[in-house]
Amino acid sequence: xxxxxxxxxxxxxxxxxxxxxxxxxxxxxxxxxxxxxxxxxxxxxxxxxxxxxxxxxxxxxxxxxxxxxxxxxxxxxxxxxxxxxxxxxxxxxxxxxxxxxxxxxxxxxxxxxxxxxxxxxxxxxxxxxxxxxxxxx
Length: 137
Description:
Helix content is about 65%, strand content about 10%. It is mainly alpha-helical. A hairpin with a 2-residue loop joins β2 and β3. The N and C termini lie far apart (about 30 Å).
């Protein structure tokens, strides 16, 4: 996958997140840093609304990828990051946002909140990423 294709894919996924948030929960994601905090609520709202259906593999994959892309696109613009397509595990290729020497697994943090621990915060992860970069510059 070329960098251009990956950038388009992630931008399209982020758009899907905006549409999904509006359609499912009447929540407006406006690409502002403040809207990242809403992603935490949206992820838990899927479980409230769909219960176990939200935790089926395909649903989890889609939810985590589109909302991870949404948060990633905001970070990418703010920190001049770039999307990296990692195929080191051919069975589970992953996309990370790279900023300088750091990489961020945004779909992964959404997965942790959705599936494993509702105390994990996507917004805190986002703020930590910002803090890492702002401290180093």
